[in-house]
Amino acid sequence: MKHLHPIMFAGTGSDVGKSIVAAAFCRIFKQDGYQPAPFKAQNMALNSYATPEGFEIGRAQAVQAEAAGIPCHTDMNPLLLKPSSDHTSQVVLNGKPIGNKDAYDYWRGKGQEVRGERIDFRAEVCKAFDRLAACYNPIVMEGAGSIAEINLKDRDLVNMSMARHAKADVILVGDIDRGGVFASVYGSIMLQTPEDRKQIKGIIINKFRGDMRLFDEGRKMMEEICGVPVLGVIPYYKDIYIEEEDSVSLEKKQRELAEGKVNIAVVLLRHISNYTDFDTLERDTRVNLFYTNNVADIQQADIIILPGTKATLDDLLELRRNGCAQAIQRAHRDGKMVVGICGGYQMLGQTVEDPDGIEGNIASLPGLGLLPIRTTMTAEKTTKQVTFEFDGQRCQGYEIHQGVSDTNETILQTGHCIGTYIHGFLDNAPVIEYLLKDKAVNNVSLKSYSAFKEEQYDKLADHVRKYVDVPRLYQILTDD
């Protein structure tokens, strides 16, 4: 195949759809016979994923790799920041945690010392890109937030500085649904240096609602004032399901009980992570899955799930303060099914200990006492893909957690309480059917989650092809 320039989908802001557009083009390039791979130099997210080698990357790049039809790898997201408080993040470099970093120090570009050696983050992300670019064609890059944060420009690792290193063609993605798209697109371009401005080769307007003809004149005006072609206007969609990692998507989730369905309450934790664990249940027509920390709603739910968290002890303390812990215990006594995943599993045990202050300054807390385990936080992080047996059938998932529990059981069950470290546990049909088997609902045949995701990537690619000038984009990616 002809060599294509790397392409970067940069944004006028957060949540404009960069990740989804990048996933769409990973699938489009794959369909057209290329061998694409995703890349995001630096990601900030609590939803992460374990690579086949047992390392950790941002969930979005794992999704994009799936769309590209290749295994995910740490080179696709060499630097991952996992917020542990409003001011501090765990730094994961090349798939391994190297410690916590204060946000001020991080953005001041002070680097990180590991065993007495100072790490140059810029050099690390560039080396990861170079390794990836030697193996795949094209590299589908994603920026972060807005490309016009000029106060952070000299410390930028992920937007225009990375585009310069990669010699990438930059496509600016703007969200018309939130309003102000002309100002955000024009401002994002005009705030660049002349050198960086030349790398912006196209504009994609995302999340359009209504009659497309109403924007025909606006499209021409945008091209005139920006001097950059508008390659497409992508309508908002509701019938395509792609996993998302941004916390903004969590805010749009269902929050209430519903009649006539199995009500599954996911306890809304302050530091909730990997809430993509519940995407399959959310699509099940028998189920109303909702997020809540309302005590009454938790007790009325048919099934209660304690999800993963980046700060187990801090969230456990908050559950005790706001009454949710007691509500879960009462619901369990009343015969309700309680499921704990990862950090939620740890909370369901007898105690959670943190003698070395791995998570913070809470040394120990009693758990909810529903499972016979004790957990000790450790500096070493477990990251691996796993297969397991459930109800006599083979299932798949992955583990990402800190802390060791005193049991060798992959899945621990006592009566109507189940705990596991396995993310993706609820993506498996045997698990879902087990949870719903005694509920008064009609049986539904669930297709495999992997087959469902493949179908969604194809639907996304078809949607984007329909509204973006893909031939013109190919021309941009091959021009000298």
Can you offer a commentary on this structure?
The chain is α/β, with parallel strands linked by helices and 480 residues long. Helix content is 31%, strand content 29%. The longest helix has 19 residues. The mean pLDDT is 91.
State the helicity in percent bands.
25-40%
The gross shape turns out to be globular
Secondary-structure content class: alpha/beta
Major sheet, described briefly?
6 strands, parallel
User: What fraction of residues sit in β-strands?
Assistant: 25-35%
Poorly predicted ranges: none
Number of strands: 27
First-last Cα distance: 17 Å
Radius of gyration: 23 Å
Strand order of the largest sheet: 2-11-1-12-13-14
Number of helices: 17
Instruction: Name the average pLDDT.
Output: 91
